[in-house]
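ugh finaly. both done.
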Amino acid sequence: MCDQSCIRFGQDYFTEDIVRRKAVIEVGSRNVNGSLRPVIENLNPQSYLGVDLEEGLGVDEICDAGKLVEHFGSEAFDLLISTFLVEHVCDWRKVISNFKHILKPNGTLLVSTASKDFPYHGYPFDYWRYELDDLQIIFSDFIVEVLEEDISKQLVYIIARKPPIFEEKDLSDYQLYSIIRGVRIPKILTKDIVLFKIKHPSLGLRKITAIVARWLPIPVKHAIKRLLVIFGTGLT
């Protein structure tokens, strides 16, 4: 998934000298509203493999982003592209670690993602927001070549290169902004997801809860209402 601003960003950076004869993997490659794939394929890579969790346009192989190294082996690709994926993975550390380890020394990655003001967009769910400082720190074990922000669309981009001698940065305590909690946290718990689904109007559970509660006995309804008030949602 890649919108026009993302495609322009890739076009501005990638040249045939960078891409020619390189093994390319795109992670989260299902083409929903655009793709960098035609741009990259026109630059004569050795191969181009698109992977995603489900079949669709642009998907050559099904693979979980957190299992890339397990599936393909370490240092298997020269170029990794991932556009608008990392905000949708709950365990972002595992996914980004796989990004880093699946690249060969001197391999390059392009990652684009949503920044803090980007609205919730579940596909199938939405967890995190990244700022430029986050990307700078998360990829501080790489050589950062391009770091940009599209303020008008609340998007951030990074292009970084894996050093010949790679030592992965420890991100175990790093906190990202959670779109479902509204604060920076180290990780998202199951209860955070459940409460968000209850409270978020677009997910429909708030309305369903209210409808069901109207058919319950009055004491039970009052008890549910008190709980929902505690958790920050309303019941009529």
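ok and the 2nd:
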Amino acid sequence: MNVPFHDILVYLDGSESSLTAAMYAITLAKSTEAKLSAVYVVNTRAIGELVKARIFVDAERSEYLTDLEADAERYLRHVVHLGAQKGVVVQPVKLSGTVYSEVRTYVKDNLVDLLVVGGVTEIRSRRDELMSETDRMLRTVPCPVLIVRDDDAIWDNFEQG
């Protein structure tokens, strides 16, 4: 099959919609024989902002960072397992930093052809829109972006296929 992409990246953030996006990306990679990577970015910028705003003290920062690192590992392992169930090798990638910047850099450095993301959360204010890491990521990556919606249908299709 001749497709315009050969290297797919799915973005995980721990949400159900990002897991749905992973399922869709696995199905897409299998049907197109594309390489698939899954990225989880530990948002150290957000942690820094919480400390700066005095919501966390430095001791809590370390504990929270450890928890986020463990979450990243758990979600990446889960997606690798989902891929294996369908005969698709998923390359796990854990990064740390500012989400949009890390994903954009990864896409550029690895010549990713397609970024797959879960449904984008509702923006309630102009400030939310300006602050949204996902929105900034969607606007700045140098490749096409596929936003996956209709979670129930994708889950059903993944389990049946």
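summary for the 2nd one i guess: The two ends are 19 Å apart (CA to CA).
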